[in-house]
Write a structure and sequence with these properties.
globular, 16 helices, TIM Barrel
């Protein structure tokens, strides 16, 4: 039976988070994954938030509740022994019939320090990824280095299918170069504009080529906040409230602004707001809900929203998202709205993709 025009491109190029933000009922993540698959999206992404968003558990549940959709789980590498992470990914490929990818995130350094966990440095992460791949190749690994001392690591029972692709979240030039050198994919950060996507893609591709890799072998994923057909108060929470949790972070927000070539003085206004100044370095998303940050979000210039997110009607959002594909993104992660609210958006995306001949 012939597919609807644009349907295959939608599956290949668009995914969504399940359980975006803070969670009180993780079971709805399974329903969201099923809905994402039903409306034609090709991937779900699971972030890591300790307590009720454990990617290993959720990915396993989703693998049995879906049949086609790709499953991407985010892990903080230094929170787990390498054999545990390698085993999770190996098992997830077996459970999901090769639909799993593992993503490593560096996390905010202050957050890792607060937990008493080792910082996720590039050196540690490079060794961690190397150990993962050697274990998935069936090797027995003896390692002594920055991660510690591991006399003998081996996965006893190996999944014989595809090795899990390794994705890395990246914003600044060094992390983008790392992804191009070491990883199968890179996830760009929310509120990176089309200019930022072009700048980021060039850094990744150049680093891959310098490392002797095929530059096009590194898949560019872009994480974009979408708010299709939402009431204004909800839109402000999803877009502006969430944006503040990124821009208020020292270093973190600066990197987004720099890659986009935006005005950094706006960050000073955000960080001087009484709600943010009172945090004394504590991440805002640990202290406030998105709704509680809407008043701070009013400080964001409108063009930051226009250039860095997809807001408006479903048709307007779909057309805006095409610009990120044109800028170099291979796949887009829809963030902010729930899959339950994305049915009209996916219909418009099929239209827009078909119009581009995809």
């Amino acid at each position: 039976m012939a597919q609807e025009p644009g349907a295959q491109a939608l599956f290949d190029k668009f995914g969504t988070y399940i359980l975006p933000g803070r969670v009180d009922d993780p079971r709805r993540g399974i329903e969201e994954a099923q809905e994402a698959e039903r409306i034609g999206l090709g991937a779900i992404w699971i972030s890591e938030r300790f307590a009720l968003k454990e990617p290993a558990v959720l990915a396993g549940a989703v693998s049995q509740a879906t049949s086609r959709i790709r499953i991407n789980g985010t892990f903080y590498a230094t929170m787990r022994h390498p054999i545990v992470t390698a085993s999770v990914a190996n098992l997830m490929q077996a459970m999901s019939a090769d639909r799993f990818s593992i993503m490593f995130a560096r996390a905010v350094p202050a957050y890792m320090q607060m937990l008493g966990a080792p910082a996720i440095t590039m050196e540690r992460l490079a060794d961690y990824i190397s150990i993962m791949r050697r274990l998935w190749d069936g090797e027995t690994v003896s390692y002594e280095g920055v991660l510690g001392k591991f006399p003998m690591l081996k996965l006893t029972d190996m999944h014989e299918g595809k090795k899990p692709p390794v994705i890395f979240t990246a914003i600044g030039p060094k992390s983008l170069e790392f992804a191009g050198t070491h990883c199968d994919g890179v996830l760009l950060h929310p509120f990176v504009s089309t200019t930022g996507v072009r700048n980021s893609t060039k850094i990744v591709r150049d680093a891959a080529e310098k490392a002797g890799r095929d530059p096009m072998s590194v898949r560019i994923y872009h994480n974009i906040i979408v708010a299709p057909d939402l009431p204004r108060d909800e839109e402000d929470a999803v877009v502006r409230g969430r944006a503040i949790t990124y821009f208020e972070l020292p270093g973190f927000g600066d990197l987004i602004v720099e890659i986009n070539e935006w005005d950094k003085s706006v960050l000073d206004l955000i960080r001087a707001h009484p709600k943010i100044a009172a945090l004394n370095g504590k991440p805002a998303d640990q202290a406030y809900t998105r709704q509680e940050l809407v008043d701070v979000g009013a400080l964001l210039p409108q063009h930051w929203i226009d250039d860095g997110a997809a807001v408006g009607t479903a048709a307007q959002c779909a057309d805006q998202l095409m610009a990120y594909l044109d800028a170099g993104a291979d796949e887009i992660l829809l963030h902010g709205a729930s899959p339950n609210d994305m049915g009209p958006l996916t219909q418009e995306l099929r239209r827009a993709l078909a119009a581009k001949g995809l």
